[in-house]
Amino acid sequence: MSPPREPMGALLDDDTEGMAEVEALAAQIVAQLKRQGVIASLGRRTVGPRLLRIEVTSPRQRVAQLDRAAEDVEHHLAGYNVRFERDEARRYCTAPRKVPRKVDLETLLARKAAFLRERPGRFVLGEGLDGEVIAGDLADGSSCHLLVAGQTGSGKSVLLRALVVGLCHFHPPAAIRFTLVDPKRVTFGGLAAGIGAHLAGPIVYDVEAILAELEALVAEMEERYTLFEHRKVQSIDDYNDIAPAPLPRRVVVVDEFQDLIASKSTRQPFLDAVKRLGSMARAAGFHLILATQRPDRTTVPGEIKANLGGRVALRVQEVVNSRIILDQGGAEGLLGKGDFYADLGHGLVRGQAPLA
Fold it and tell me: Which residues have a Cβ under 8 Å from the Cβ of 101 and sit 6 or more positions away?
């Protein structure tokens, strides 16, 4: 997998441990390449919360010679878990940090406060490798619905909780409401007390109740479009600009939706609801966030992928699972515990999910 293009951003000035670690690693890489007869120059050093990345160039040799030396360098620096990555003519060395830096949700929210306050539906996913906050907007057609996947231990539940907390942090219940679906009963239980006023109802655990909730949301969506027609507006934002009682955005978060796909009695009704909401709900202010730990072709059929444009992949078991979520490999090599790739419609980025 080619590394995602990163925006040019400053490293965190107070991350002295990370800066020291990346310089020590850089010296090791130069020494090992020299052993292979490759005189290397090192470019930008990127210090992320969990990952170090160093751009490597060799002005005296061809890229092919650098590539031939890469396997040997990886072998000799196995203790650092160094990996070479290729991106067209550029080459990078990456390695996990020995002591990861904590990413705190409250800090990220404070850094993006002006953007997040502007309207409900804006969210943060985490911190990028360059120290920038990775943020998105459910009102954006490219990321109005999200598909999230990651195996056990990948940090999926932590990411989902942080996403929900961040969405409601700056906005009252009148502006955004949540329907949380948790068939495994382990993801959202601790949130109920803190964001109870933002919940449209109790957390949903029963599969049959989930279908009833989705059907009710489809009906509510259609009612909103009738309101819009009477007011001669086209979206929830236009309606709220002129209506005496603004409508809240409705966010439906379903963890482990594979339970709905696995049963013949629930599979088609669930897919029908997803297609209906996915294709029409953005302008009405309805948004789906569907998560699974089994991103295979059975769990994530074409109907789901086609209607959930925003993608977040945490660590998965195999390259085929990564391709189902991102349309390319790479997520099988993530570090776990919140390390993710995300595509919110503006290119692939790598980041670390925060702790809420």
Answer: 15, 17, 18, 49, 50
From the list 294, 296, 303, the residue with the least C-alpha distance to 268 is 303
Domain that holds residue 319: 105-352
Tell whether the torsion through CA atoms of 327, 101, 127 and 149 is positive or negative: positive
Read off the pTM.
0.90
Residues of the chain with pLDDT under 70: 1-13, 60-61, 89
Sheet holding 249-254, edge to edge: 133-137, 122-128, 348-352, 339-343, 310-313, 146-149, 286-292, 249-254, 176-181
CATH classification at residue 271: 3.40.50.300
Sheet with 90-96, strands from edge to edge, namely 41-47, 51-57, 90-96, 83-87
Distance CA 54, CA 236 (A): 45
The predicted pLDDT at position 319 comes to 97
CATH number at residue 26: 3.30.980.40
Same domain, yes or no, for 88 and 112?
Answer: no
Number of domains in the chain: 2
Statement to judge: residues 167 and 59 lie in one domain:
no
CA 207, 310, 227: angle at the middle one, nearest 5? 70
Q: How do 90-96 and 41-47 pair as beta strands? A: unpaired
